[in-house]
Amino acid sequence: MPCYRCGTRQVDPDRGESPWKRGVRGDRQVLVCPECQGSFDWMADLDRCPVCTSVHLVRRLGETECRDCGYIRQQPAASSLPGHLAALAPGPRGAAPASPGLAGTSSESAALEGLAQEVELALARVLGRTAGSAAGG
User: Fold this and answer.
1) pTM for this prediction
2) Beta carbons within 8 Å of 94's beta carbon, 6+ residues apart
3) CB-based contacts of 24, cutoff 8 Å, min separation 6
4) By residue range, what is the domain housing residue 18?
5) Which of the listed residues 59, 68, 123, 128 has the most CB atoms within 10 Å of its CB?
6) 68 and 122 together in one domain
7) Are 35 and 6 in contact (CB under 8 A)?
8) Would 137 be classed as within a structural domain?
9) 27 and 57 inside one domain
10) pLDDT digit string, tens, across residues 40-85
11) 49 and 116 fall within a common domain
12) Is residue 10 a part of any domain in this protein?
């Protein structure tokens, strides 16, 4: 997952605690790279807990949990899906979905393509293959 602010991808961590921070923004889990943490008030962009106003939130399985007070907020089923999949979910009473296409915007397509390439290279490193042979099997 890239930094939501600058798009830098997190690399394999060194031993110890990661310098990357995570939070929730717009009901989506985000990461903040160390450079962006130092360059602006990154916490001001994050969602806050409605009970204790903490920014120490985590998203998982359609819910948002506050790490400070333990408050858990459930999401309606369709809104817990990623944007490109939520558009495909049935609307009220089985209405046809308003489908923008699976790829969504061209920036989403480019991000997914970049992610696919990174995964391919990582698998090739782990399996001891060259990137070209990893795609072929």
Assistant:
1) 0.51
2) none
3) 30, 46, 47, 57, 58, 59, 64
4) 1-76
5) 59
6) no
7) yes
8) no
9) yes
10) 788 888 999 999 999 999 998 889 999 999 999 887 555 555 555 5
11) no
12) yes
Torsion-angle region of 62 (φ positive above 0: left; ψ -120 to 50: alpha; else: beta): left
Question: Looking up tokens 């809104």, which residue turns up?
Answer: 79
CA pair distance 122, 60, nearest whole angstrom: 25
pLDDT digits (tens, 9 = 90+) for 84-126: 555 545 444 444 444 444 444 566 667 777 777 888 888 888 8
Q: State the total domains in the chain.
A: 2
Q: Distance (Å, rounded) from C-alpha 94 to C-alpha 66?
A: 33
Residue 28 counted as domain residue: yes
Residue 48's nearest CA partner among 77, 23, 20, 19 is 23
Dist. CA 71–CA 54, nearest whole Å: 11
Q: What share of the chain is helix, strand, coil (3-state, %, to 5)?
A: 35, 20, 45
Hey, what are 78's tokens?
């369709």
Dist CA 125 CA 103 (whole Å):
28
